[in-house]
Write a structure and sequence with these properties.
The chain is of the alpha/beta class. The protein has two domains: 255 residues, Rossmann fold, CATH 3.40.50; 92 residues, formyl-coa transferase, domain 3 (2-Layer Sandwich). A six-stranded parallel β-sheet has the order 3-2-1-4-5-6, sandwiched between helices. The chain has a three-stranded antiparallel β-sheet with strand order 7-8-9, covered by helices on one side. 35% of the residues are buried. It has 18 helices and eleven strands.
Length: 398
Amino acid sequence: MARALEGIVVLDLTAYEAGPSCAQMLGWLGATVIKIEPPGGEAGRRALSERPDIDAWFFLLLNGNKKGVTLDLKAPEGRALLTRMVERADVLIENFGPGSMERLGFGYENLRRMNPRIIAASVKGFGSSGPYAHYKSFEMIAQAMGGAMSVTGAADGPPVRVEAGLGDTGAGLHLAIGILAAIVQRQTTGVGQRVEVAQQDAVVNLVRIHFRDQYQTGKPVMRRGNRSPGASPSNMYRCRPFGPNDYVFIHCATLEMWKTFSKILGRPELGDDPTLADRLGRTARNDELDALVEAWTEKRTKHEAMEILGDAGIPCGAVLDSGEVLCDPSLVERGMIVELEHPQRGKYPMLGNPVRLSDSPTEVKRAPLLGEHNADVLGAWLGCSADELKALQQKRVI
């Protein structure tokens, strides 16, 4: 069965998380993604690794479904090979610092001269224009500048960084959406275009709903911890055996849910209490209701609580730690967790593709070793002979 992006060739010149997450998504959807690294490997290949001689888990998580090629873009021969690749490719993704692509001779104007159909996609911290264009950025910087930190944390505590990759993977997924739109538009226009996503912009979009309070009150949005202003009870509640992640989140969104929940709590009269009949009445008594709920959850494990409430139609979720996520039956059964085998790491459970297409199944593949597909890409695809590849290797161009 053909895959959605079959025949689309993507050149991935990115490092770390934002760009690689974009390219990996395109690979999951069926594109041929060629990851181009310097001969020593991109920085993410060794990031936070427990051993310097094997690929880091950081790298493996973000570079599946790609072919691995090494290329020294500082060498004339390396740039010549990249030019030949651009001429044949559909998409080029980069997250270099401002001006780097231009200095290498691969700014957008040059790219479109090489291949008018090329889609040149970039992830930048603050975009290529504006007062912060020359500033460097990472995940936590994007969260700070995008408004995510200011709305995260306890009401009486400092702003808190979100562990989810809003600025990195969030920006990468936004970039993938832009690339897909450019591919569709190219079918009409016949030419490619630039696609850019700033990490700051992506974070602002991901916290968009929190601006509702800013518009309503004219004041900055306040931190609320785990409580929701739109429902009650809605909080994190302790469970047995009281470990660091033995909690369940319960979100009682409607009066009918509250009536059902009050019966489960053994207090059916609270479901008929007129002072608790709407959200405002219940949120006014948050402390009282939270204590009542936690007295119930503390007698159960998080999974027991989730099963009881889930079956009763009350939104709830056990707080899964990373180990529990990897063996969660729902994730495993639906293919979000798959078993892979790596030459250095052996067999391991890997996070898969969250997007399901009925006519374009995803085969999750491991990340490539450094330069693993040099012969395949530079030889079979570009036409370099074995002698040429050997000479390039001896000169450390590949």
